[in-house]
Queue: 4 jobs
Job 1
Amino acid sequence: MAVAAVHVLVFPWPLQGHINTFVPLSTALVNSGVHVTFLHTEHNFRRVRCTEAAPRLRYLSVPDGLPDDHPRSVGDIFTLMESMWTMGSAAYRTLLLSLLFPGSGEFPPVTCVVADGIMTFAIDIAEELGVPALAFRTASANSFSAYLAVPRLLELGETPLPVDEPVHGVPGMEGFLRRRDLPRLAPAADGHPTESETAADVHPFLLTVAKGIAHCGRARALVLNTPASLEGSALAHISPHMRDVFAIGPLHAMSSVPAPAASLWREDDGCVAWLDGHTDRSVVYVSLGSLTHISHEEFTEFLFGLLGTGYPFLWVLRPDMVGAAEKEALRGAIGDGSKVRVVDWAPQRDVLRHRAVGCFLTHSGWNSTMESILEGVPMVCWPFFADQHINSRFVHAVWRAGLDMKDMCDRSTVRSMVTEVMESSEIRESVQALAQRVQRDVATGGSSDNEFKRLVGFITELSTTDRHQARSPVMNGDISHQG
């Protein structure tokens, strides 16, 4: 049933992993009859080449405040945050005001905002203007629950360190969580931080993230890209802290209409054809995501560890991950390309569902974890920062869907863990059982399907009952913010 009067502005944090989740959310909303305005930063808008949109879906952009040549890499996250909270937020406010009073056109006024929970300003500004706002977090419910527990963790002195000491401060995870599994800062450019460096820097990082997590409780609801069957315990611990919680993932498996392009890099179309030339479950797929950086030493250990397995492998190495020395080493190792293929970026979902892929060596980002589970592909996990450390622990210790290689990067460990995951029938059976559970969640009548329908009804009701609260910029003294 069409709900044409409902118009949702969706606004992801401007990094690849977040965009990847917001795009299928937008597609699913559009398929439900909702108008959607997808808000990119200008820098990303140019990169994803948004030239066409579906009916009721359009793309707009605001500046992020950084020059075009700024790397926007993991080492610059706090610079990006500061710029978004100043220039980005001002531009967002001006745009949102204009969308409340659009005049004639096919899009009605914005009636609801679904903003990335990282961007607390997007939620606050919407509510100030009388537009109900929901927080959408693209990480796992387990990591969200761990961030909620930060005050208790700091009280107990259980901060992230690369040690096996157990953690007791995260409800529901007391039996298996270790200090090395807690969310951490990104490593320095020359490799993982030392224990002392981590201990010195972790408190400001944790407190900053925890403040943003707690802020989600001020939104009308929290939306998570996860199925209840996989993270039910964490969802139960989160719910008392939020006004409402919707578990609607994995979103990429829920939309019946293919989502529009979302990649900030050009995908290599030839790698799927390369996989066609290999036997079933014989290839190792290696991708460490859109932000991970590796040192020369780590690159070397990965390379010789993978070569040591004897299995062919497809390795995603972004141009900003490696330098000339690494590229020279690759040229010597690849040979005729029959056993090794290296690409800048890959169509990951197509790769993971390919019959030739037997193992995924991953950074344990939540999108990658969900995509691998859904396709029944076992994992070797090498987390880099933030929620990835929690995800990798669950993959290994709880879901039995792979092995956790965190804090290790030597060729013998790479070789042995990849070989074990490629050959273990127990791990494969476990991850395939998980795949069946998640597939039931996203199927018609499953928990995620039902929760998404509830979300559409929730947004529709907010858009109807709160419409009269949208304030005039003239009456409320906001005219000075319009461009």
Job 2
Amino acid sequence: MEQGRVEKAHHIVVLADQGQGHINPMLQFSKRLASKGIKITVATTLSNAKSMKTTLSYSMITFESIYDDCSQGGVVGPGGFKGFLDRFQASGSTNLTRFILDHEHPVKCLVYDANIPWASKITTQLGIAGAAFFTQSCATAATYYPMYCEVYEKTPLSMPSFPVITGLPKLRFPNLPSLGCSTGRYPPIIIHLLGQFDNFGKADWVLFNSFDKLEEEVVEWMKKVWNVVTIGPTLPSFYLDKRVENDNEYGFNIHKPNSSNCMEWLDSKKTGSVVYVSFGSAANLCAEQITELADALRQSNIMFLWVVKPDEQSKLPIDFSKETSGKGLVVTWCSQLEVLAHHAIGCFISHCGWNSTLEAISFGVPIVAMPQILDQIINAHFLEKVWSVGLIAKANEDEKGVTASEEIYRCIREVLEGERRQEIRKNITSLKELAKEAIDTSGSSDKHIDEFISQLDPAYLRHRSNYN
């Protein structure tokens, strides 16, 4: 445990949304708060709570199921994803309210995933503090906010949009018909995501899994609108400041990793010689894209470690693993933290989800970006155009948006051996040091977390309420 505990532990409830990319950063923030003497209850679905209980053993963190998704089919139950959201709200809001009201240790604050639209209503109803947790980048929020003003406020943004976002490529949207009908020029998924900003406006704090020096200009722009607090990067402490005891993994995995096989294989490889390929837990590549990626890896002389999830194995070219066994390893899942921390990794081919992006930055691993949808495109833009720590493997400009094998190979060679290699290495090493500095003692994120804890004092919250 860290120094600086509060004399009497505050009790904070953390309401996590579905999905590994949402749960992991909120779990890590919970561990960081617990290490500073805060009592934490993580409220989530029954399936998530069961999984976390078996992997996490923090005395200051308990888990509370507020919705039994196991008996109702989860996200693939009746009504699809929309049906799941409706059931989670109906059951979850009632059970969470009852839990907060009846708990013997009074709850000071509800930290909720901003993607849960009904969360802020509970804080208002119960008169407790609320912190909206945005699990994507500050730049993504700054990109979405003008859309929110157009759709929900029915008026253009009242201040200039953030300038660095100018020049972003067109965002691609996933096809999720179960979320309902389109509204105007935006598809249902965007309408759903824009609802987060209603939570922003009602929150005492808006928390971001980022750090000041990574998105400095964006953060300053956003502070004109909300009480923005950067608290990242939310990686396990073992890989950053080592101040949180027994924190060397996230504690939640949708898939079972094959870590021992991966690490033994990497141990036999030279420093910086391996390309690591992974598109996260949610992205689902089409067969054509997997074939192009396989061709790029097969035709080169580059060592590679490629994560191909079980439901994507059938899309691999026949005998690919056998043909490339001398230089490559294909696995169904692995511990990405352990892999990115390994000296053998030279670059990371990634979809650029925000967690993967922050991990690569924190470990100083250059990225070949192959963004698929939404915020991944924004993250990739910043990686290449703003931070200069990687390259975007450009997709074909058609409906499929597949990236050709030649383009993938070109980017790999440029990152590993090309003219920009030294510049990219220098920049990613610099960001790696800034990431560690932010979360270490008296770093910007560490100070922000301490300030957040100190502001749970009732007098401060009354002041904030009057101000808002």
Job 3
Amino acid sequence: MKVITATDHSIPKTPSVVTIGTFDGVHIGHQKIIKKLTKKAADKNLISVVLTFFPHPRMVLQQNSNIKLLNTIAERKEILAALGLNFIYVQEFTTDFANLTAREFVKTILVDQLKAKYVIIGYDHHFGKNRAANIDDLRAFGIEFDFEVEEISAQDVEDVAVSSTKIRNALKSGDIQTATAFLGYNYYINGTVVKGKGFGKKMEFPTANIQVDEVYKLIPKNGVYVVSSMYKGKVIYGMMNIGMNPTFEADKKTIEAHFFDFNQDLYGQDLNIIFLDRLRDEQKFESAEALMAQLIHDRTKAQQVIAALNA
């Protein structure tokens, strides 16, 4: 699979089957569309292309939007790549792009750039300036420019009953299990391990302080989670706190992971932190000793969750 952009000289010359969308999260509904796309491409001996956008259109069109994404663009590419696509076409979403008329979008991107012969779109898809065009317009353009159009039916959409918005809301409320079910994989964040204040180490629970780019990425609700990561090709398990460290009256939010039976220097390492379950809300304790007693209890519960997952 290859990632291409409008300025890329390696844009394929082969006719394609294209689907269009932001695909934030690449959840089970998105995966259903992409399976249909790759099958259609195989049946018609065409290449499969996902046309996606970055940044999220709402970030450009609604300047006061505080939307956070389920995936960074790098994560989205990684997840899409595993679904058997030939190409991902990443269109930078700008005000200039948003002002393209529907016809300009179809002619410039779908026809001239991607050589579309078959276009699959989600139910009630709108496109072009002010999202003025719909499925009927796209079919008319298909007649003009010689490509076929297939719309994912409302019934198919309802059968999946999932959306990126529902997943965001689940993560904001700390409902990891619902988010996992809707995504079809465990939600994860990526960050670099940086030096923290050493609170965990003093209590014999040393932590990796994860610095995450929060400009785009949605961070789940503050609290304590069961997590895993990969280190030198091996899965490591642990628990992670997201929050303000109220017991120590810290002055900023941190993301700190404690890995079980692990004693390696992680400073500077780039880690994916995978959310397996949620244990509890963040709490303020009367003393460091009280917090340590709770952490011991949390560790026991986390290990039980991990054992059940691996059973």
Job 4
Amino acid sequence: MTELIRSGLKFSHLRILAALRETGKIGAAAQHAGMTQPAASRLLAQLETMLGTPLYVRHAQGVVLTEAGRTLADQAIATLRDLDRTHQQIGQIASGTRGHVRIGSVTGPSLDLLLPVLREIRVAYPDIQTSVNIDTSDRLAEGLIADELDLYIGRIPDQADARPFAIKTIGPEPISLVVRLDHPLSGRSGLTIDDCLPFDWVMQPPGGLLRRTAEAYLLERGRPLPRRVLGTTSILFTLAHVNETNAIAPLARAVASFFIERGGLGSRLSILPVASDMAVGDYGIVTRTEEALSPAAAQVFDLLGRYSRSKE
């Protein structure tokens, strides 16, 4: 095909030959291709000159393509079909119904916000491909600036230069205290935060946002910190440890609800009815200030925003 293009092959040549393959008549092929019959005959003659071989043979009912004509016509049909498909895909990309969107999220919102939005994307925009990175806001912010993410659900880190970031605030992230179902505090009436302090706690390592939030909650109310704390970044290990011991774990309420109320651990873990006002500060949908979202990423951004408002 490259040599033919150098010899002067045009799309009009492909269109008339493809139409001739389908109709078997030059007049009908010309009408199908939107040109006059003399123009069609001229294009076919040019093609035969380029190739140095006849492409069709006339007969009483019209024309019959030669083997060379059928070979080139089949290629012309395939090429035009591929171009139509490409044009459609470009239109989908421009309209935001096709593309690849790289999404980051902190753990809690990934369960109660991102999961349902991904389900909606799968149904409403099946040609949008997504990849998801679950991490801390610090790391997600680094990934956004490095162009490894298109957007993330989380917070702008306190120590970061906020100028490269834009955030659509959603709200605070509530925290629940999780224990095993037959924990000594389960079912106790009049439970207070003081009742929880003699037990071991399982939290993020020192410096983690959720741990800082839980510690600040206690200190602001004049309470001491738990004496024994197991530090881990693994939610799965946290849940397993709580299930096997009397430890207490502060977890994002979305995580606690997902694993306890809807998950397979529902019969083995429970949420203590205490410290219901404990919450991590506002989070939102974070993007880059100086770079517009791709149409597909903009669709995801809008869906996240709409879903978060519907939960209010």
